[in-house]
Amino acid sequence: MIMYLLMMLTAAVVSYAATWGARALGNGLRLYRPIRSRDMHSELISKLGGLGIFAGFLVALVVSSNSFFVKDIFAHNDAPWGILAGAVVIVAVGVTDDILDIRWWIKLFGQSAAALIVAVWGVRMSVIPFIPEPVVIESELVRIVLTAGLIVTTMNAVNFIDGLDGLAAGVAAIGGVAFFLTAYWVHRNNPQTDNSDLATLLMAILVGSCIGFLLHNWFPAKIFMGDSGAMLIGLLMASAGIVATGQIGSGLYDRANGIPTIIPILLPFAVLSLPLLDFGLAVIRRTARGQSPWSADRGHLHHKLVDLGHSHRASVVMLYVWTSILAFGGVAFAVFPWQLVLTLDLAAAFIMAVVTAWPYFTKKSSRPPSEV
């Protein structure tokens, strides 16, 4: 645990410092994008914050490869470097979009290229968790396609929710902590001699990088992560989930106090359930209008909360709480009796539903009888 926390701290410090540099670069060169009707800010702000997040990831990964205990992850394993290569590509694509506003199909092509790099040289799905037995994917082509598809979906899900100051970074940090604790617990309670794990390391580094950046991005934000940061977070989260999924065949999750084999693939979806929900609703909404799923609009969950009457900060905090309920409530099924977890999850969800909808009921009760 200590080494993982040190890598998390390393990523946080580097990310915080590098984001300062990205702010100076963006402001000095005036690399701003025009304010759009759907944007929630009123001042020109640079979107180069993804460079700070990437710097935290890069430095922490290199340091990890030469550090006690976690360096064993890199022994005879090219997966971390394949993930890094994909990260380099997606950050380059994201920065280009943040500065030049490239067409959606060009960005999708770049996302696919980065995802394929990870799938070919990094990690790939080899098992689909299923009850009662996991399904082994025999075809390498199918493995690559499924891996790339999952990564692209996750990148866009995180990108879609990046609309309020501190929202995407905070949601990723909360979900990352839930993923990190679960992955660490699994490996800490298994009989293997080597308890080091790439998924746990990726989550530790991701959480640290997001926290370091969040100190600049909290309301009122001094810099945005842009597409480069959001897509990088999605790539790392999906890669960690794929790593965990690949460990099913080893029986690791069966030996760790009887965790069901379906848990690994549910982890990334549990911790990213809010972004994935927003992404799914956006695709349905835009497709129903005859628009491209990647066309922009002002119908995301965070927009709805602000329109409902919540302040900018309150909307972010509420989405933090929802993320915590979904992420920690989801992974808790792997540790505690499902009856207890389900009861607490439903109770927490009900309370938050009331808090979320409270401005609506307040407005409705305050209207004159003729308007109600």
UniProtKB/TrEMBL annotation:
Pfam families: Glycos_transf_4 (PF00953). Keywords: Cell membrane, Magnesium, Membrane, Metal-binding, Transferase, Transmembrane, Transmembrane helix. Mg(2+) binds at N159, D227. One of its GO terms (cellular component) is plasma membrane. GO terms for molecular function: metal ion binding; phosphotransferase activity, for other substituted phosphate groups. The chain crosses the membrane at residues 48-70, 79-96, 102-121, 141-161, 167-186, 198-219, 231-253, 265-284, 317-336, 343-361. The keyword Methyltransferase does not apply. One of its GO terms (biological process) is cell wall organization. Its cofactor is Mg(2+). Its main location: membrane. InterPro entries: Glycosyl_transferase_4 (IPR000715), PNAcMuramoyl-5peptid_Trfase_CS (IPR018480). It is found in: Cell membrane. The keyword tRNA processing does not apply. It is a multi-pass membrane protein. This is Undecaprenyl/decaprenyl-phosphate alpha-N-acetylglucosaminyl 1-phosphate transferase.
